[in-house]
Each structure stands twice: as structure tokens, then as C-alpha cells.
């Protein structure tokens, strides 16, 4: 039997990486789906990886589960992935965490509802 060579793995077609800093495994599957639909690789992590295996295009911080990363994240992103879009989101009732993310210099701070609504098209741009 003559086997055809396997096409490139899906990972080889990715045009960048979405790093999702969260402990919410259920919501992570939605973010993964949106990222992969846009041709991006998805990494779920508890910290910004020094080597993500590709160009980091998006860094998304879940303030409900990873707010401890807020203060250092802008500087880490400037050093490791300066061109990445950095987004933090959290429950609308956790105003202090949302305000802390803005004060830390995170460029896009959203409520979870806002983030959830924009997720289907977030990575299309």
C-alpha cells in the first residue's frame, strides 16, 4: 500500500500564539476554540512563558483567577512580546481588580461579559 505523506500538522499552520493566563478550564476551551478558528496556537498557563514556541500575538489575563500577575505583566510583555495585544478581563463586580489592571498599564481591560461577547471575533483582526 502506498501511503501519502501526511500534510503539515495544524501547529505548523499557526500564525501566532494566544497565551491565556487563567485557572478557568471551562472558559479556556472557548478561548482555545476562538484562537484556533483564527489560525492561532493556544497556550493555557499560570505565567507568561519565556518561550511560547512561536510569536505571541495575544496575552489574555483572567483577573478572577490570576490577578496576582497584574503588576508585573506589562513589563514582562514589553520584554518578551512587545507587539502582543494585552487584554485583562474580570467580573464587573471586582472593580478593584479591573482598576488595578488599568493602573498597571494593561492596554485593554474588560468585564467578563464584554470579553465573552467579543470573543468570537477577537482574533479575526
The best one-word shape is globular
Total strand count, please? Answer: 5
Question: What is the domain tally?
Answer: 1
How much strand? 15-25%
| Largest sheet report | 5 strands, parallel
Explain what the structure shows.
The chain has a single domain (13-122), classed as Rossmann fold (3-Layer(aba) Sandwich), CATH 3.40.50.2300. It is 37% helix and 22% strand. The chain has helices spanning 25-37, 63-66, 73-80, 95-104, 112-122; strands spanning 17-21, 41-45, 56-62, 85-90, 108-111. Strands 2-1-3-4-5 form a 5-stranded parallel sheet, with helices on both faces. α1 links the parallel β1 and β2. α1 (25-37) packs parallel to α5.
Short characterization:
By secondary structure, the protein is α/β, with parallel strands linked by helices. It is built from five helices and five strands, in the order βαββααβαβα.
Descriptors for this entry?
125 residues, disordered N terminus, single chain, 5 helices
Write the layout of secondary structure elements.
Layout (H helix, E strand, L loop, with lengths): L16 E5 L3 H13 L3 E5 L10 E7 H4 L6 H8 L4 E6 L4 H10 L3 E4 H11 L3
Parallel strand pairs: 1-2, 1-3, 3-4, 4-5
